[in-house]
Design brief:
The protein is built from 16 helices and 13 strands. The chain is α/β, with parallel strands linked by helices and about 425 residues long. The protein has a domain of about 210 residues: Rossmann fold (3-Layer(aba) Sandwich), CATH 3.40.50. Bound molecules: zinc ion.
């Protein structure tokens, strides 16, 4: 399906720029592609060269396909022959009319990322990350996972014939370890909940064993996160070349919100949109360094020097003591003009309630990390009329709850079993009255 777009890809379609102000090296994709700056090991920014991609008109977004790889012209991969795909992306944008009514929102939309091949939007990042790795000749992958990255790395590694290893924290869910192993991936669990110390191990392993670091943070792999941009392109396509006025995003390391902002800027640069939506970033009460950083307008240096000390949340997928992608976000925030970006924290209890509300009102069982966005809308709506100004509000439902049912539903009781000669009418009646 993507082959029809391969002809649109140009030899020189992206630039990599070192983010270190003292280095400022620039690489084209005609050179050997680095993951971090080969001169100084600093993170790289990838810029798609839009006068090449710009030959695509708005009609490109009116043509539907069945995978995120429709958007190859906007992604930093050279050759479509290297695509490793499980059919990720092309997820539904569903109107949430029941929940919208509860939350007093005119037009609430849910981007349902739970139906991706391993159950989360991370598949978009890893599909791109492993395709780039394949293009560069890698055969091994290593990554840090606090949530869904592990399963995705293992599944796409299986697909690409890579050996893979995931380093996971002590609060990592058992179901997620089992899922990784099922795909033939390997797991090392460390008695630590610090992203920073786990990432240090991943970096060492990556260098020692020539394994691509598929961490979904632009500090260590400039490519993977660009896969998440396709969420926004799809929304643009699904709303018939418009965007919502407000996008609500769960935040851990900050890669997802940054990728979505980057995609907005790309559409703006191509003159496909005139205004960038507003954003609300959501984090758990027990670990919210990113929200603090945007509220206090901290610099990346200040954020990276002060890891969150006491992580206290069940939502491990969002529990980043250091939001690794804050520097990317910080750079984009300066470029996005006229968009209001705010943050809110929600408690685990509010999130659990929101998870149940979403399941009951819309039939979608998402993991707690995703339910934070519903908890946030509920909380904002209860305290102000702030949301009534928005015509279209879109939440990103990042991952399914089904993979870890035991943990996600541990407070739901199991009803007793009846004998087979039960008084069925009496038993059934209360459920329908
Ligand atoms: Zn450099």
């Amino acid at each position: 399906m993507y082959n029809s777009h391969a002809r649109l890809v140009f030899a020189l379609k992206f630039l990599m720029k070192c983010t270190n102000p003292k280095c400022k090296a620039v690489f084209t994709d005609e050179e050997k592609t680095p993951f971090t700056c080969p001169n100084c090991d600093s993170p790289l920014n990838i810029n798609i060269i839009h006068d090449k991609v710009g030959k695509i008109g708005l009609d490109f977004f009116r043509e539907r396909t069945s995978s995120m790889w429709k958007f190859l012209p906007f992604l930093p991969l050279r050759n479509a022959a290297n695509i490793v795909t499980l059919g990720e992306g092309s997820t539904p944008l569903l109107p949430a009319s029941n929940l919208g009514k509860d939350l007093k929102l005119k037009n609430l939309l849910m981007k349902n990322e739970t139906i991706n091949p391993t159950g989360s939007y991370i598949d978009r990042q890893i599909s791109l990350g492993i395709s780039v790795a394949k293009e560069l000749g890698f055969q091994k992958a290593i990554s840090l996972s606090t949530g869904n990255v592990g399963a995705s790395v293992a599944a796409y590694s299986a697909r690409a014939g890579f050996k893979s290893l995931c380093v996971v924290p002590s609060n990592y869910k058992a179901g997620k370890i089992q899922q990784i192993k099922l795909y033939g991936g390997n797991v090392i669990q460390i008695k630590s909940n610090s992203e920073k110390s786990l990432m240090d191990l991943v970096i060492k392993g990556s260098k020692a064993f020539n394994a691509v670091n598929l961490a979904t943070t632009s500090l260590y792999n400039a490519f993977t996160n660009h896969g998440a941009k396709t969420i926004l392109y799809e929304i643009f396509e699904q709303l018939e070349t418009e965007l919502p006025d407000l996008i609500v995003v769960p935040v851990g390391g900050g890669a997802l919100i940054s990728a979505i902002m980057q995609a907005c800027l790309e559409l703006k640069e191509l003159n496909f949109i005139s205004e960038v939506p507003d954003f609300i970033a959501v984090q758990p009460e027990g670990c919210h360094p990113f929200i603090d950083a945007i509220t206090m307008n901290l610099t990346p240096e200040e954020v990276y020097a002060n890891a969150w000390k006491n992580v206290k949340t069940e939502i491990s997928a969002l529990a980043y003591d250091i939001p690794f992608d804050y520097s990317w976000f910080y750079m984009l925030k300066k470029q996005v003009k006229g968009s209001k970006i705010s943050g809110i924290v929600v408690s685990d209890a509010e999130t659990r309630a929101a998870q149940k509300l979403l399941s009951k009102r819309e039939g979608l069982f998402v993991e707690m990390a995703s339910a934070t966005v519903i908890a946030a809308l509920k909380k904002i709506g209860a305290n102000s009329n702030e949301l009534s100004q928005f015509n279209k509000v879109c939440v990103i439902l990042t991952g399914t709850g089904i993979l870890d049912v035991d943990q996600e539903t541990k407070d739901i009781s199991i009803p007793p079993a009846y004998p087979d000669n039960l008084d069925w009418e009496k038993v059934m009646k209360p459920y329908f009255s």
